[in-house]
């Protein structure tokens, strides 16, 4: 008997449409395929695993003298037929050489082993997910017996064979919705390029314009950069504009389908593609998939275990099921080196939401989600004055999309407004630290409107709302809120509530510029909080007293308040209040003429705020350092800091107007500096500060040196943080005008930055700079 294969070597099909992007993925797949005999490309359905595998196989053809063979397993229903299908694809058939009446039958595995044993062959096994066990068994047997065989597989989960290297295939790159992009810059994103190429195929002459660029970018983002979804969306262009496609994406599964002949059934609609993944999951995995859709953005595994357990899912099983969903490319695992989080792509999430709505457990996971995040916020509030403060800041920032969703649930679900009011109140210091003053007021105003009855929770919320309004310089709103809070305190007859609004009245007096009245009110509140041991309110009272005393020219009282605040915060590992205390003491020393110590204290305050990412605190520290610098011989530093702090205030929607005496310092600093430098020099230094950006502004304020970058010749060349940002945007393809729009600077400033960078690095062309940036990232 002998085995024969077709005369042609391999069966890789020619590509009928262009292959977009994936340079890094192609290069990595080729690299690992040269080192490993089994490489599996994994990813969610529609992400482009098959196209990537074909492109890789085509590019490595010369390495396989006996051919590359594509084996389509997607339509195969019976796992027992996997080996038969592979053998049939290779054209292996029996030719009996025995006598009449005699027959020798070899199994498909034996036929494959005999044929491949001495050959250099690449097998591309496409769509293995639904028959993964059978594929794994076959591949393991063949690799053990056929040293010249290499296998490139595509699957929604790994095969689990020894020596396997798994390469996750990510979605195509999409534009960041938070950043403006030029038309040339948009085309640098793989998803946009794919959309445009497929668009031209169905609407010749279609191009990206100022009228459709936003819609095209948002379509690509909303579709998660999934090639299948983007191609299906582009196919609608003969009858729908990009804007109309975008509006209809709320029902993406109905919109996105194709009638192209030759398209595999599972790729004819986006829903069919996702359903294919859903059907490959166990019942428990399907149930968890649906429940995970209550999360917005990413989430912690501990949150999933608490929220998604119950009703058929044991808490201890949830993590293993999550791991399985990651393996099946349903769930995305994100590890930034400090924490591990998980998320669902929007397309996967929307499908799961449909399944959750169809189930009889639709409301329970949502209730658990709301309650879990309400409890998280309460714990953060309770542990605020502790060594965990920095960790809580970071954790609340990571969880903020889910916290927002929980707040919305509280304020839309009947009977939950009280929970929402307490949540909003407990987020007080987070909103301050992140500069989210307007958003904090938005949530508090909504919650207060739903809880009109006088109660302790309402009183506390009124206090927080008044503080946020005061820091925005909205004295009228602050006055109204404080007056209502005082009324609530009297209606309740609550001594603690009276003290709270005595404190609030003290802050209001500072906002109005009546510092002596503020001190009298704050002294009264201080006695109460010392007796009660309410640490957060005691610290707020001390800090307000220190600020008012500084404004009245009483540095001794300011120092005493600072020392008491330090005695409270330092043993507890607290950072935020301590940084404010240092800032106020710095002002007091500045008023005494001790510029060196004042600068040191404000810089120390600024450094303490860095791990908190305290945007409001950054602004006040830059302000104070500008005021101090106005007394130095070189006033340009003060002007530069004033320019930098203006950008901070605009970003957070606040101003130094929270206190007339602080606003007076700001105005005096600007007038003195402008007069000393002259208008032209002042504007030049001021604009430099505007152009710095927050990171460089902080480095400048701390008098830190920029980090060195490597030039092409290997010598060290210094790029500032802003120059590095500009270089990155040049590499992205932005014009000088586009860079100016992205960084909110003038076009002339952008041109100047580009010129300086090119001079520093010895380049004459923007393409050289783009190549250099790419090399720096890779190294």
Q: If you had to describe this structure to a student in words, what would you say it looks like?
A:
By secondary structure, the chain is α/β, with parallel strands linked by helices. The protein is 62% helix and 6% strand. Among the domains are: 23-168, Rossmann fold (3-Layer(aba) Sandwich), CATH 3.40.50.300; 183-278, no CATH class; 281-360, Arc Repressor Mutant, subunit A (Orthogonal Bundle); 534-613, Alpha Horseshoe (Serine Threonine Protein Phosphatase 5, Tetratricopeptide repeat), CATH 1.25.40; 635-702, no CATH class; 721-778, Orthogonal Bundle (Arc Repressor Mutant, subunit A), CATH 1.10.10.10. The strands form 4 sheets. Strands 3-5-6-2-7 form a 5-stranded parallel sheet, sandwiched between helices. Strands 1-4 form a two-stranded antiparallel sheet. Strand 10 and strand 11 form a beta hairpin. The longest helix is centred in the middle third of the chain and has 24 residues, at 389-412. It is globular. The relative contact order is 0.05.
| Widest sheet: strand ordering | 3-5-6-2-7
Classify the secondary structure makeup into a structural class.
alpha/beta
What percentage of the residues does DSSP assign to strands (E)?
Answer: 5-15%
What is the overall silhouette? Answer: globular
